[in-house]
Specification:
single chain, alpha/beta, Nucleotidyltransferase, domain 5, 8 helices
Length: 192
């Protein structure tokens, strides 16, 4: 019997950073929620001090200020707890490759190897499942699918919204095509 993602466990993640390029930017917030059988059962979230002042545009985008990061841990301190939380779960994110690239940067520093978990991108999946939408931002998908959200560009809010958007996309795939197992869904979430 195949294990359907709607009925199994996955972890929805989101990171906020000092910029968009993982090679030149650092994580300032990371959050994830564990979803089991379609229900959020646990969460992990922390602000992270990058060791330098935030660009003003990042504060304007996220609402995260330099003062909020004083005394917060650095990502190398946070990574082991994050890894314990996600374990071997399938990671789900909107633009998952970018989130993984940010995490991989620190993972390589600490462990000397690549961070390559099983993962699914809700952006690419939505483009395949809902090909007629004009825009595929997380906010636009949430609005289209009737998913409520608090705000965007804060990691915990985006992780939760992504989880619920993903569940709605899974329901559409299952009802339309009978697709719901990880490898089947993964094929539909490949790069666009």
């Amino acid at each position: 019997m195949k294990e359907l993602l709607l009925e199994s466990t996955f972890v929805s993640i989101d990171v906020e950073a000092t910029g968009v390029d993982p090679a030149k930017s650092d994580i300032i917030e990371i959050a994830c929620v564990r979803v089991e059988g379609g229900i959020i059962t646990d969460s992990f979230s922390t602000l992270i001090n990058p060791g330098y002042p935030l660009p003003q545009r990042i504060t304007e985008l996220t609402g995260i200020t330099n003062a909020m990061l004083v005394g917060k841990p650095q990502m190398e301190e946070v990574l082991p707890g994050f890894l314990r939380f996600v374990r071997n779960s399938v990671l789900v994110a909107h633009r998952v490759e970018k989130d993984i690239a940010f995490i991989d940067k620190y993972y390589r520093r600490l462990y000397g190897k690549r961070f390559r978990p099983p993962h699914i991108c809700t952006l690419n999946l939505a483009k395949n499942v809902l090909p007629n939408l004009k825009r595929y931002t997380l906010k636009d998908l949430a609005d289209h699918l009737g998913v409520e959200y608090n705000r965007v560009h804060r990691a915990m809010d985006d992780a939760k919204t992504t989880a619920f958007v993903f569940l709605e996309l899974l329901k559409i795939l299952w009802n339309r095509l009978g697709i719901g197992e990880y490898l089947e869904v993964k094929k539909l979430s490949k790069g666009y």
